[in-house]
Amino acid sequence: MKLPPDSILNVPRVGKALAKDFENLGVRTLSDMLSLLPRAYEDRRFERRVKASSEDNPYVYCRIFIERKSYFPTKAGRTLKVSCRDDDMTELNLLCFNRDFLDRQLRIGDCWYISASVQKSYGSYNASAFELKRTKEEAGIGSMLPIYPLSGSLTQKMMRSAARFAIYSLTPIEDCLPQEMHERLGLMHRDAAFRAIHMPKDPKQTSRARTSLAFTELFLLELQLVREKGASGNGKPGKLCRLEQKLLESLPFSLTDDQMKVIGEIDRDLDSHRPMNRLLQGDVGSGKTLVAWLSSLHVIENHGQVAFMAPTELLARQHAEKAAELLAPLGIRICFLTGEVMGKKRKLLTDGLRDGEIDLAIGTHALFSSDVEFRNLSYVIIDEQHRFGVEQMNTLTGKGKRPNVLAMTATPIPRTLALTVFADQDISTIRTMPNGRIPIKTHLVRESRREEMFAAIEVEFKRGRQAYFVYPRITDEGESDLRDVNTMYEELRKRYPNYRSRMIHSKLADEEKMEILTSFRLHELDYLVSTSVVEVGIDIPNATVIVIEHAERFGLAALHQLRGRVGRSDLPSHCFLVFGSSLTEEGKERLKILNETNDGFLIAEKDLEIRGPGDIVGSRQSGFISLKYASLTEDYELINQAKAEAERIVREDRGLIKGENACLRQVVMKEGKL
Ligand code: ADP
Ligand code: MG
Description:
6-stranded parallel β-sheet; 20 strands
């Protein structure tokens, strides 16, 4: 049987068994082998003699002369000990466990090249893990050795020869980047890069090679994304349907330009035959939910059903109330469904959904339990998407025939990561806040100045405003200096005897939380003492003060979300961030950022700077793309650069028809993207 020329089986000495081992490493072809990066390198460029070994770096590569041989008693009988000296005349004992055959091979006076891991004990140097070669070259001395991931019976030697074989068989390796870019950005040619990676000579070259490959990979990805984005941007915005017009007319305000733009983008997707997969990002209070309602009407007018899913029962209920207020007058049939709804009532709702008697279902992920069927589910909206796990998200896609999906988030993705991490999602952004909003004033409050703060808040109470007090703990857990909800509830009651309050936290039943929030909304309460349960989405416009104590204990994104509980009307609002004396530099940095800006997008960028992209990318699992050379968490700069270059190319030569872009055009065409 003739092998395909690219098969890994072409490598000498690789048979079926080893091919399986290669496959475990993701290597089926010679090209796969080429793109398998070594996990490390062993730098044997310079000889390291015995004395250079240390606990941190026990490795030794040098020439030795055999001096003496003896046996010493061990449990298994006896073990060969070969004493030798290097060119410094330092003595090294080779302990040859189960390697008696070395007695015949190693003759006194002979010269060998050794690589060994050396331990010093009681003043003498010993090695039991060592390899001996006849020549310097065989021992790898004078070169760098790639260390590959291994599987099964693969050895480093096998891997190295497979890589070398791949390079020789695949040469010349095509490079698709224009020459001009190579020169300007100092990138290595692809061919040279693979040589530097698999047959390394110098660590600087190797690292430049990796960067060059990573850049090309990111650049091609960005090129594709930039081109697609441009292409879809050319369509006309969808026209508002009758129901959407009606809802707009019923509102006491008009939409912001960004809201209009985003509705246009969504409606256009909903009208197209391709199922939508869109992320709607906008800061807290930017009016995303309204966009969701309007676009729902677009679907409902065309006899589709809509499912609106929120991360908590609390939020779901709040949305259901709002929907009842806004949409029910338009004749929309709404239902509210969570895990709590059971028995007859549940049956009624699920029947309604199955028979198409219900247009809009609002609820938690219970909307997608196995007993829920939809007649014609064509639009799924996910509020606060980042709160959902991957599994919960996956259950969605099964219902309905490939419904349109709109995921909303108030934790914006930093600009630079957005395009790359969410390769399969389109993104809509609401950047501006509704008119008339007064920016929230943020105050950083030292422990020693809490009293003044409490006095200032009393003034707000007198004006008829409401407040949130937020603590990191529910009860005192013995961390002496940490305030908690219970203790502070008592303390605040004493301080503000004329004002009404309740505690709210995750230990309460959902019913009770709802009841408390409802009475807060009705202004039967003046303030809530809370944990970060109030973080997500709660919308009570008359609340204008939020106090967050031990602010340094919360993440930047969480603080911004919490702060977003106020400033939800045309009243001036205040956010007090109380910090302790143990504030770290990083903590200080974070609080300063919040003090300086209300812009969630800017905050996300800063968060990225402080935490690095790892955390942010890591905590989001949606739409990941796999990269061979580049790392989303470490190549942040490179991503920026690749994106800028891709945008430049598309600007100058969208169709890639210029001569210097011919190679690029070929690659893009091969992937079916042109
Ligand atoms: P988000 O979900 O983005 O945090 P919401 O949709 O909850 O924001 O909107 C916050 C508040 O702003 C709601 O009370 C909503 O009715 C109101 N709102 C939405 N759009 C506008 C607008 N264009 N002008 C004024 N108020 C608006
Ligand atoms: Mg919201």
